[in-house]
Amino acid sequence: MIPFGAQTNSDLTSRLPSETSPLLRKTLPSTCASLPYHNQYVSGVRTKLDDPRLAHTHRHLRIYYQNVRGLRTKLLELSLALTECDFDIIVFTETWLDATIPSALLNSKRYVFHRTDRSSATSSHQRGGGVLIAVASDLRSQLITHHVRGLEQVWTKVNCSEGALLIGAIYLPPNISSDSCQRTLLNESLLDISSRMKSNDRLLLIGDFNQPSISWCQTASSDLASGGQLIYLTPSSHSSAGLEFIDMMDSFNLFQLNGAKNHLERTLDLVYADVYAAQLTSVSTHVDPLLPIDLHHPPLEILSDISVSSKSPDTATVSRFDFKRTDFEKLNNLIRNFDSSSLVNNSMSIDEIVEELSAFVRAALACCVPVLMPEPHPPWSNERLKALKRKRVRALRRYRKRKTNAARAVYSDILNRYRNTNRSRHSKYVFNLQRSMGSHPKRFWNLVKSRRGSKAAIPKTLHYDGMTTDTDAESCELFAARFSKCFVSSNNCFEFLANAVRDTPPDVIDFPLLVVDESMVGNAIARMKQSYHAGPDGIPACVVKGCSDVLAPLLTMIFNKSFRLGYYPVAWKTSWMRPVLKKGDPSDVSNYRGVTSLNAFAKVIEIVVQGALFNCSRQIISPLQHGFFPRRSTTSLLFEFVSHCKRSLDRGLQIDAVYTDFRAAFDSVSHPVLLAKLTKLGCSEPMVCWFRSYLLERCFCVQLNDSLSRCFVGTSGVPQGSNLGPLLFLLYINDVTTVINGCRILLYADDARLFHCVQSSNDCDTLQHNLRAFQDWSDRNELILCVEKCQVVSFSRCKSKITYDYHIYGKAITKSECVRDLGLLIDSRLSFIDHRNSVISKSYKLLGLVFRMTADFSDPMCIKAVYCSLVRSVLEQDCVVWCPYTANHISRIEKIQRRFTRFALRRLSWIRRGTMPPYFTRCLLLGLEPLSMRRAVSQCSFIAGLLEGSIDSPSLLDALDIHVPARNLRSSMFLSVANARSIFGRFEPLTFAVRQFNANFARFNFGDPLRSYRDVLRLNVIDVVSCSS
């Protein structure tokens, strides 16, 4: 399916659509008539476009196999080799990879990687092993999930013209290759795979089986039903283990095709095929290895005449607009010619006006926006490199045909010239990216992002509700089926609504009919995030921002008309939903949530309404709500919660905290209840009508790459990813704090934690009573509590705790000793040892990733930028809450940056091995501060933010007391420090931060911005408070 915001070359001679106004045709020059109009709507819903399905072409397979003896140190070499080869499938054994090395480091868009790394389930050894299959991205393939554990294997299925080809890669370590348990696992694996094969499916099994006791001799057989000849190798062995292996493979009627021997005249790497695939497959030693050869394992080239299905491009080549090069002067002049008389004399409906304006802008874009040219692959490619690649292909073809030494010498010469040119071009490309980081940072970070990969990347193969897909179009439908089930039906009964809003305070806001002017619309456009990606209307935010002066008057008239009529245009209700992984298995569709992408003009009106509604409602939003509110964050919530708990524990008390979880809270918001709450809060009737029109009958389509799903209507919820949705949700959930009495509650959006100081069972009863009130509130507001995900933690440092079974809906809540709260691991003793260990472990893994990503970087400043983005950000996330204060923990964290500084400066020519300058000097050379100093700056900045109002937390501000000494002293602290009974209480977050702030108060001025104070602290060697001070 052709995506919106794209055009096809075959459409460039077409005319504007029939619904385009005559005025538009007269206004735009003739060159605009070539604009394709892909965003066709009927009653505001996009009609089904012509969907040229991917045609299929058929070709024969070229497979490469090699035991690589480790890829960890060969990633850069392999990524270059993948740009030079043209194999359809690549199989590697002994990859030695692990979870810290993403496949994206191979930096190849031409292949889809399937791999199995060594784990405790497959081997007692932590390192070594591992198998990988890389399938060309234009082949229709999918990963096969096998049910046999304990074997290093990976299977993939490639669609053929008839049936499918199942390809497996297996590695049997030499120390256990003769083990009967391994043979049993291999037998079970082959049984599992054969049970899934259909009658016309074929099988190819490749790997390092480590069977040196088996010898092979070539055999030809013509006793076939097809009448053809099958050439294979027959085995013989003098060991019982070898004979059992032979019998097992014979029981599956598999034929071994590889006769290539290593330097010891042994064959360790085997290629098995079923009888049909064996007739069409040949194996030979490859003359052009991708990676250095291991003498024990010669590389193999497997040629198969099995015809596989490949995706061919659409008959109309897809071209996209390069909105970054928009001619805004010309575009503004064209939009000025739009006839706005229909807005003045009300001759057209608002839906027609919106359609007319959107079509006009899209048509004008054809004259002002060039077509985005596809980037070369690889990015450093040029005509000379392409010519050498063509010569290499021709020379290889001649060598295969002639098999002479002269042809091989010609091929080797051209191959060396091509490889040297490719590597030289790559080095120059990386060097230029490093030099341009200051002027073109996005290019540099695109390279970093491509090498790092993304955990949120959606796999090609997805499953949901018993269905499995391997194409974007089918995956879109799976996501649509999943997201449509998140919506719920609402109760419109008057008695039910009256009961739902009983906790909502009446008439506390004044939100009359909204009337906007051009300055308000212009400010809203200025607040839009810059984006070069078009939404459902085909118009990106950058176009609206670039044409703000000419669009603001038109949008002002449309917005005011929309408010007067209490009607939201239907075209703006259509949204795209993009799947975003929450957590868990990325191949399971149920682990995703949908984030909406809106029309450009819809974003502007949402910003206008959100600003006006927030200004009149910000005073009623509870200070206990830290989500989606300015000057509040996850850090402010965690700081407030942990400080309260630590102070209580220091006094020998116990805190019981219940963490609740709503099921799809944003998608489950009841529209009638939300509208009833807005009415009771004091929202005017015209605006309530407008909100009703805004919420009801919203249409969604799931977008995945260039595919769109069927449309489905949302019966509940507020749009996730919109500007107005989060504020509406806060107003919906705001009155939950009024039903909590006798204990405390803190909220971050829909994540609630109820906690209470427990000294007896009566206190536990009080918390349970509030849980029941919380449960009743959720029932009245049609939000479903997911009891399975709720947790209760008893925070205490006492040897014996008060135990109590808390319930929701009559079900016991799971008790935990450690809980992850907004990314922070909080244990029951509030020691944060688990969190610090987790952060250190994660940082070391990311540091190793940085080392591999920047192995070919020469500029230390570029390496530093990657480190600060990926590693230091993890070390400093919410550090004011869990800040270490013992020398051991401080040293463990600092070692990470110490190691990085040595790596970043390793290539400087004036530094000799063993003469590396001290750590503090290395930090100065790289422009870094020690991590302990940065944490101290963060603590000082947090207290300064509370005092200046840039952090909004009334409870924390109330806890700050200005110190007034009884008599004048030479040195005195500014803020009073609470007395603590132990070292534990002395370093609770608030007390620790206050002591840090007092030590550096001389550099603080109330009149200066917070950023200035932070910069002053970083430029000076500040006093760092620790356990020893």
TrEMBL record:
Residues 1-21 are annotated as: Disordered. Keywords: Nucleotidyltransferase, RNA-directed DNA polymerase, Transferase. PROSITE patterns: RT_POL (PS50878). Residues 561-813 form the Reverse transcriptase domain. The keyword Transferase applies. This is Putative reverse transcriptase. It holds the Pfam family RVT_1. The keyword Nucleotidyltransferase applies. It comes from the Eukaryota. One of its GO terms (molecular function) is RNA-directed DNA polymerase activity. CDD domains: RT_nLTR_like (cd01650).
